Each structure stands twice: as C-alpha cells, then as structure tokens.
Amino acid sequence: MARGGFPPPRRDSVSREVHIGGHTYRVKFVKGLADGGEPLSGLCMIDNTTIKIEADLNSQRGFQVFWHEILHAVVDQYSLGKGTEEERLVDNLAHATVQLLRDNPCLRTQTAFTKWKNRRK
C-alpha cells in the first residue's frame, strides 16, 4: 500500500476498471449502446460488474455518464435507493460530482487533502 492506505497506481494509467465497494467493474465503450432497442448513453450491469458507455459521446458528456453509471453501482452496493428515486438521485449526484471535480481539480487525488491537513496554520 502507498499514499495513505491506497494501493499504488497501476502502470496502465488508462485501466478500464473501477473498484466500487469491494467489486471490480469493467468499463467498456460500445458504439450503438441500446437496451431492448432503446438507445442508451450508459448502462451499469450490476450482476456482471460491467459499466458500458456509448462510444460516440463527446468527452464532457461521456465523463458525466461515466459518473452516473458509477453512482448506480454505489447506490446498489450500499442499498441507497431503487426505481425512479434511484435514477433521480444518481443523475443529480453525477452532475454534482463532475462539477466538483471540474471546479476543484485538487479533489481528484488524496494528495491535496493530505497537503491541506498537514499545512501549518
């Protein structure tokens, strides 16, 4: 373990895996993503721990959809909601998370927090 109890970064910095609540989700980019003929921007498949993202999304929309699907896994893992309420919760949290990360790049790593904590007054 390195950096405050976190595992060291992988050599493959573009790993297509996300670790959520003890599970490893594979991330796949799929052209023409759909479910029952209905086009989708993203899909979180809880049963086989896979997140699928529509490959043709621009990076800004794709990043928001990515966080949206991650939050579906978090909500399921921790039994935070179901049905329509879950979709609204996940959508709002995804938008808020992405905005926080954009507005505060220092929040992307624990390093900034550690520096803040250790800074003398």
Walkthrough of the structure:
There is one protein chain. The chain is of the alpha+beta class. It has a single domain, classed as Arc Repressor Mutant, subunit A (Orthogonal Bundle), CATH 1.10.10. The protein has 3 helices and 6 strands; from the N terminus they run ββββββααα. The strands form 2 sheets. It has a 4-stranded mixed sheet with strand order 1-2-6-5, covered by helices on one side. A two-stranded antiparallel ribbon has the order 3-4. β3 and β4 form a beta hairpin. The protein is globular and about 55 Å long.
- For this structure, the CATH topology is Arc Repressor Mutant, subunit A
Identify the strand order in the major beta sheet: 1-2-6-5
State the distance separating the first and last CA atoms: 29 Å
Tally the helices.
3
- Tell me what portion of residues adopts beta-strand conformation: 15-25%
Class derived from helix and strand content: alpha+beta
SSE blueprint:
Blueprint: E1 17-20, E2 23-30, E3 34-35, E4 38-39, E5 42-45, E6 50-54, H1 59-77, H2 83-103, H3 110-118
Parallel strand pairs: 2-6
Antiparallel strand pairs: 1-2, 3-4, 5-6
Key structural traits:
four-stranded mixed beta sheet; alpha+beta; two-stranded antiparallel ribbon; globular; Arc Repressor Mutant, subunit A; disordered N terminus; 121 residues
Short description:
The protein has 121 residues and is of the alpha+beta class. Helix content is 40%, strand content 21%.
